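Researcher: I'd like a candidate sequence for this fold, 338 residues long. If you have to choose between options at a position, lean toward the conservative one.
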């Protein structure tokens, strides 16, 4: 069986790390039929649109995409392609696994998964200026929109993820002590859903500021964490910092009708074309994609290979303190899988 996947190489370092990732996925023996499309600045330069209809149509057809990092132009009317994809395909769950690899990062016992609500909250972008006197931009207002349906969908996803993956606890992260409605609703739904899983998955809740502190003091106490959009955006990068940075941080954007897997770091135009970018995050995103299509054994092999290359073979790109090139790192992972 061949899995049909929309492949978006991306901008900056994207094509380099995408090439390495394709070689790794090919080494697993799993068959892929790649439909290569463009987005971001590459698409702007070619067609004037950062998210061409052909790319959207491809994802709608394949329901599966692997995406390199994209550049959103600053100071123009172009929207974020990542946000546009989430809205277009209702990719409501952003899943960010974070696991320590020996020899990099400051914490050796991190093994957590952050599940972030991806389409609601402050990031809905409902905001405006209010005129005061002669100043039309005297006050800026932004509205957080949180629905009961959206809360239940993401929290239930986190609990079901825990059940499927043998996880023991789900922590609901909120700010209900201050934001009585938008965070209060999230906590209320979290408690109700958590009660349904009593005896199977433990439940607790943490206020966002305490959660951030606890992640730094004792990250090993965290298992599955679920939270709203902006809090999840911040905590997921904090989690990556615990294990050595965004170069080791994959992400999956999961919806009812499509899933998009990506490296969550940026396009790093300053090192584009130099062959020094770390492809590990996109390779690990490829492992998540393998899990998603039912090739869990192959996904486990990819994750194990990345860890062994870094821990045992000492093949590391410069962001991890080494000198390996993008290609050398990818080839080392291929050898471990073979």
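Model: Candidate sequence:
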């Amino acid at each position: 069986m061949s899995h049909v996947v929309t492949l978006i190489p991306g901008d900056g370092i994207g094509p380099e790390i995408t090439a390495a990732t394709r070689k790794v996925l090919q080494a697993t023996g799993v068959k892929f039929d790649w439909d290569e499309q463009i987005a971001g600045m590459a698409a702007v330069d070619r067609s004037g649109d950062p998210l061409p209809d052909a790319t959207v149509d491809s994802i709608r057809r394949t329901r599966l995409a692997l995406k390199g990092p994209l550049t959103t132009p600053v100071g123009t009317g172009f929207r974020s392609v990542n946000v546009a994809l989430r809205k277009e395909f209702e990719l409501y769950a952003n899943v960010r696994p974070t696991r320590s690899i020996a020899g990099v990062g400051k914490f050796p016992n991190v093994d957590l998964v952050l599940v972030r609500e991806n389409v609601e909250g402050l990031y809905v972008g409902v905001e405006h200026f209010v005129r005061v006197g002669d100043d039309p931009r005297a006050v800026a207002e932004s509205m957080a929109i949180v629905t009961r349906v959206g809360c239940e969908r993401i929290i239930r996803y986190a609990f079901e993820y825990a059940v499927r993956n043998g996880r023991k606890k789900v922590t609901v992260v909120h700010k209900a002590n201050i934001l009585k409605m938008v965070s209060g609703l999230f906590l209320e739904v979290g408690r109700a859903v958590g009660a349904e899983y009593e005896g199977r998955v433990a439940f607790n809740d943490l206020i966002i500021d305490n959660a951030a502190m606890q992640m730094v003091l004792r990250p090993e106490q965290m298992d599955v964490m679920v939270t709203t959009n902006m809090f999840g955006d911040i905590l997921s990068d904090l989690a990556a910092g615990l294990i050595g940075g965004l170069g080791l941080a994959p992400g999956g954007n999961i919806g009812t009708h499509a899933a998009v897997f990506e490296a969550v770091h940026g396009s790093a135009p300053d090192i584009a074309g130099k062959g020094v970018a770390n492809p590990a995050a996109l390779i690990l995103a490829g492992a998540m994609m393998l899990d998603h299509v039912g090739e869990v054994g192959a996904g486990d092999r990819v994750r194990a290979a990345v860890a062994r290359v870094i821990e045992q073979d000492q093949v590391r790109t410069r962001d991890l303190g080494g000198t390996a090139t993008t290609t050398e790192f990818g080839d080392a992972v291929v050898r471990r899988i073979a």
